[in-house]
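Input chain follows. Return structure tokens only.
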Amino acid sequence: MKRDIKAGSPRQSLLLTILFLILSCLLWGLLLGIIFKNPILSWAHQEIGQFSNQPTQTSVPLLTSTPTLSEFLTEATRVEITPTRALSAQETLDQIAADTIAYYAYELFYYPVSQDTRLPDTYPTDSAQLPLVRMGDVMVAEIIAQPLNDLMTDAKAAGFSPYLRSGFRSINDQYTAYSRYVTEAVALGMDLPNAQEHAREFSAVPGYSEHHLGLAVDLLDYFYVDWIVARNNYDKGLYQWLRQHAYEYGFVISYPPGENPQKAKAGSGYSISEPWHLRFVGYDLAEWLFNAGYIDPHSSVTVNGILENIYKTAPEQ
């Protein structure tokens, strides 16, 4: 008996037609993707708008993983910074501090703000005392924009993916962040004093943060974006690179890990380590601190300790 296959022919034709259309769409999509690749990605190079309520003087293009980091600053926004120089054996910490303070002419440049030391009561609550510029989504003091741009450019050239998570933060902004942690702790059943103590482990009390100065940033890596993951990988990837090279750009890690990597080195000013938190202290002091072993958990030298000593002995501006 012959098998009748005519009834299945329309179904087979329909399947072949659908398959042909799918393959055609994939082919055209591939061709269009190749032809229009650059225009499609051009959004990544667009400059973001100004924050209407931020005290900024100029704008710097948004950081993404697509453009080169050298696009951060235009010639109009570049700031002249004293170049790195070798420290002589005779040069003292006092000389470095005096020269740096005179150069930047800012009384609070070396202010040792920490968990136990608040900024002066006269410090503004909704702005910074230094001029600010935009870098990506954050604001930073204008005097650190160029060295920070150089650092990020070289970090990217070394194979890492740095991005700015945080920069300048006003005292009022800090109050909002700190209050959120307190509120969450109270909701979990803690009384107010214990809730405030709990919140201090995750957020600085308003007025007690280096971010208020505009001289500090949180620089994270896209591959270690979570705070806990970043802390656990303080000696890997970008964070290890920062430990070795941040000083070359005038930055130091304010709260490097101690013998317990989860905790900051004793005397750092805060109890929790933050391998992503950088403060600009100028090229010479950063080099002095690095050579003195401030990163070494067994060394007695800390950024906070040196800043406290400098600020107590520095002449008034």
